[in-house]
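We close this part of the discussion by returning to an individual protein. Part of our work consisted of pairing the sequence of a single chain with a tokenised description of its backbone. The amino acid sequence and the backbone structure tokens for this protein are reproduced below.
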Amino acid sequence: MPGLEWEPYQLQTEVFQALRQANLSVYLPGNKDVNVPRQKWPNNDPNGFWRDGAITVSPIMQAKGNEADVVYVLGLDRIAQREDNIKLRNQLFVGISRSRGWVHLSGTGWKGIPWRVKFSVSWPLETH
């Protein structure tokens, strides 16, 4: 997710492992198969972004151009810690705008207390 170049992939790995421990099917974009860590050529699908019955776990950079009914944006606390970083704020917008219906925002609040926000979005946004 947001931050340094390696940070999104570290968070992706942690989320992948947590979902697998919960016995959920997980897909990493670019893989050929579900429930496996990053696959390399020739065992990959460079254009793959989701698989039926699996949760796609993607850094925002890979999500651009794809949409889903429900999107979970993790690591919002990392953006808040660096709110002056325009690149991170733009990535947050891209993540939110990937949803056709529901967005769940998640991060750690003040003093490490977890917090979650969820809301629905309607695209295109209407302005009055």
About this structure: The helical segments are 7-21, 60-63, 76-81, 86-96. DSSP finds four helices and five strands in the chain.
